[in-house]
Specification:
The chain is of the alpha+beta class and 532 residues long. The protein contains 12 helices and 31 strands. The protein folds into 3 domains: 149 residues, no CATH class; 156 residues, no CATH class; 163 residues, no CATH class. The strands form 10 sheets. It has a 6-stranded antiparallel sheet with strand order 27-26-23-29-30-31, with helices on one face. A 4-stranded antiparallel sheet has the order 14-22-21-15. A hairpin with a 2-residue loop joins strand 21 and strand 22. Helix 2 crosses helix 3 and helix 5 crosses helix 6. The longest helix has 15 residues. The radius of gyration is 36 Å and the shape is elongated.
Length: 532
């Protein structure tokens, strides 16, 4: 793309053919003027400095021109800052042949240049420019590099929910490379040492004026997930907070769609994200931005119970330990997205926080009128396979559980939205592929004495065969204060030891494993209902 854009600029432009007084110094183009009375040649300057008479004129002009080219050239920014560089970085070179011709013409009393100057007499001296050839290809490539540093994305107006204030929008900008090259050429013609870069204004989509009067006193839907605050998960926690901060306070007007990837942006080091575990092809591996899916999943669950329209949502390639099956939402920039639409006649506000080990998402609005129920039934489970991978770094015969297997699941979800006597039911089917159990088998020196890596600490994955969750004003006051009423039936997949009964390979370790999952927490005793 860069080569195609640069190709059209592969021309060389002779810069600086006009004197400061406005005279055209291209003497071949100047019509022959009437011959005035002969006299001594007029004074001549280059960049405001006088040239001596005789043979010293050209060397002096060359010296002045070289000093100009060697000096730093400033590119001025709209906010008052500047970027300095050498003109050579822009492909600028002195046209010595042209400069010599100009000096000779200015010192020749019979030249058309001198004759025209004497006839008009608009200045005390002939002001010669410095003829510079600017390679536009080089200049374009250099400015394109600066463009990546200087461009600014517009920032929408939003609500600061902690301070309950309206944060105004911020204008963005984009460097106009072609127009900036023209501005640089004009500055060089005038012998100036700076040029003002040209930017195109980029306006945000959401203005503060559109958000005035937005009400957000009621929680229309909410959901919480937990994260590990241990030191070894510090990078993941950082990513959680960064992603949540990008969307917190976002306002969706009636009919608008929230686009997760567009609002949160690329998850890369340039945007501040750190390396943390991510799911890739069913396995946990390190990747930039690990943890972002917990933000999207928690937000999806809150939007689900608020009654927002789920426009685009994808499940993970394996069950997530932090959220129930069917409520997760995987995101990968820019290919896999999560989008929801505001179907109401009033604005809603997205609020997401990460603190004290809890990720909490809320959908806020003027009043909660809808009661929303999730009914989820697991239809079937697919056994996982066990994979053994030789590892010469481990002593011969030693076995280490790198990844505990997780069965695959096929499930059906219903959302029932009730308001008064009216109810609407929606249905989704989700499929989670099985996650293989991976064991590293030592093939190295059996006498090697080295500390062994720990086994995977995850326990057997438990999932309730039937799960019913409800939020909304139709719940009794005591239950409503807890936000969610939950009814669970463990069934075939929610009791400890079910994978062994189903014939799936087991790997028992001496290390303490994490009890249960977010789908079926081990600390909760089986009962018909619970409040969370």
């Amino acid at each position: 793309m860069l080569q195609r854009l640069a190709a059209k600029h592969r021309t060389s432009l002779s810069v600086g053919l006009a004197v400061a007084t406005g005279l055209a110094v291209g003497f071949l183009l100047v019509p022959r003027a009437p011959q005035p009375d002969a006299g001594p040649p007029p004074a001549v300057t280059v960049l405001g400095r006088p040239l001596p008479e005789g043979n010293a004129a050209l060397p002096t002009a060359l010296s002045i021109a070289r000093e100009y080219l060697a000096a730093r050239f400033a590119l001025e920014l709209p906010e008052g800052g500047r970027r300095e560089l050498y003109l050579g970085e822009l492909g600028a070179e002195l046209d010595k042949v042209h400069l010599a011709a100009l000096v000779r013409a200015a010192r020749n009393p019979k030249s058309a240049l001198v004759a025209t100057f004497r006839a008009q007499r608009t200045a005390e001296a002939i002001a010669l420019p410095v003829p510079i050839v600017l390679d536009r290809t080089v200049a374009f490539e250099r400015l394109l590099t600066l463009k990546g540093e200087l461009d600014r994305l517009p920032v929408d107006a939003r609500l600061d929910l902690e301070k309950r204030t309206l944060v105004k929008e911020t204008l963005g900008r984009a460097l106009d490379v072609d127009a900036s090259i023209v501005a640089i050429e004009a500055a060089l013609r005038r012998g100036e040492r700076s040029a003002r870069l040209v930017f195109v204004e980029r306006r945000p989509q959401r203005l503060a004026s559109q958000l005035e009067g937005v009400k957000f006193d009621a929680v229309l839907g909410a959901f919480e997930t937990r994260y590990d605050r241990a030191q070894k998960y510090e990078a993941r926690t950082y990513n959680l907070r960064l992603a949540a901060s990008k969307l917190d306070g976002t306002v969706l007007l009636p009919g608008e769609i929230f686009d997760f990837n567009e609002v949160v942006g690329p998850r890369d080091e340039a945007n501040g994200y750190k390396v943390a575990p991510v799911i890739a092809q069913g396995e946990l591996v390190d990747g930039i931005g690990g943890g972002t899916c917990q933000i999207s999943g928690t937000l999806h669950a809150a939007a689900f119970f608020a009654g927002l329209e789920i426009v685009e949502r994808y499940s993970h390639t394996r069950p997530s330990s932090y959220i129930k099956l069917g409520l997760d939402a995987t995101v990968v920039y820019p290919t896999i997205n999560f989008r929801v639409k505001n179907p109401f006649s009033y604005p809603v506000v997205l609020h997401q926080t990460v603190k004290n080990g809890i990720v909490r998402a809320e959908i806020l609005g003027p009043e909660r009128k809808k009661t929303v129920t999730l009914v989820r039934r697991i239809l079937s489970a697919t056994p996982y396979e066990q994979v053994e991978r030789p590892d010469k770094e481990l002593p011969h015969g030693v076995r280490v559980l790198t990844q505990r297997g997780v069965p695959g699941f096929k499930l059906r979800r219903y959302r029932i939205v009730r308001e008064g006597a009216h109810a609407v039911r929606e249905r989704w089917d989700d499929v989670y592929p099985p996650t293989p159990q991976i064991i590293r088998v030592g093939t190295g020196n059996p006498d090697r004495k080295a500390s062994l890596p720990p086994n995977d600490s995850h326990s057997e994955y438990l999932a309730d065969e039937l799960l019913v969750m409800t939020q909304g004003p139709d719940l009794d006051e005591e239950v409503a204060r807890g936000e969610t009423f939950e009814s669970r039936e463990p069934g075939r997949f929610g009791a400890a030891g079910w994978t062994e009964k189903a014939g799936m390979p087991q790997f028992r370790t001496r290390e303490r494993t994490r009890g249960g999952t977010q789908d079926n927490p081990a600390k909760i005793k089986e009962k018909s209902g619970k409040r969370t």
